[in-house]
Amino acid sequence: MTELPVSAAKAGLQQQHAPVRVPRDDFDTLYIREMRAVTVHLMHRGATPYEAADAAHEAFIELLPNRWRVIAHPRAYLRKVAWTKYLRQPHHLESPADTIPDRTGGTCPIREVTLTETQQRILKAIQQLSPAQQEVLAWQMDGFEYSEIATFTGKTEMALRTNAKRGRVRLKELLGLTKPGSTEGGAADA
């Protein structure tokens, strides 16, 4: 296995774009900035691209017609609702039975989720982590702080920090950046 320099692994884990406040009168801007991010967030938590795109679309539908204007934290809301929609999907498909409809303007959101080779490798490693580790790392990769994640998920900051630390240690092992069984980190998740 080819080793990635630590900086390359960190670059793959960095959020794709910095959180940006969306004007409260521009739903298209919110959709364009967050659709890919929400879809990738769900992929980091185990969804296939098609499952993630479907759940993300359903989350955006929850914001219409005007609910998106009054929600205090629309980025967090989208991730929470999309995760719930994903969990409620009746079955998980590897590929869609029907074509995914293009959104107005001719952009299919699944085409927006193009990952580099390094990002794909990191995604596969993240999907081998425990669900609790996937959850906290996915939120962190989207630029959320522990205090925000705790607020939005109902988990304690201590639990989030523990799972993040264990997840990063395990991720380094899976990516070949440390030797398995090294004393760096802590015990495995229970």
What would you say about this model in short?
It is built from eight helices and no strands.
Descriptive overview:
With 190 residues, this protein is mainly α. Helix content is 53%, strand content 0%. Helix 2 packs antiparallel against helix 3, helix 3 crosses helix 4 and helix 6 crosses helix 8. The radius of gyration is 17 Å and the shape is globular.
Q: What low-confidence regions span 5 or more consecutive residues with pLDDT below 50?
A: 1-20, 92-98, 185-190
Largest sheet: none
Give the % helix.
40-55%
Strand content: under 5%
Q: What series of H and E elements makes up the topology?
A: HHHHHHHH
Distance between the termini: 28 Å
How do the helices and strands line up, and which of them pair or pack?
Elements: H1 6-13, H2 27-44, H3 49-62, H4 74-87, H5 117-126, H6 131-141, H7 146-153, H8 157-174
Helix pairs in contact: 2-3, 2-4, 3-4, 6-8
Based on the model shown, name its key terms.
190 residues, 8 helices, disordered N terminus, disordered C terminus
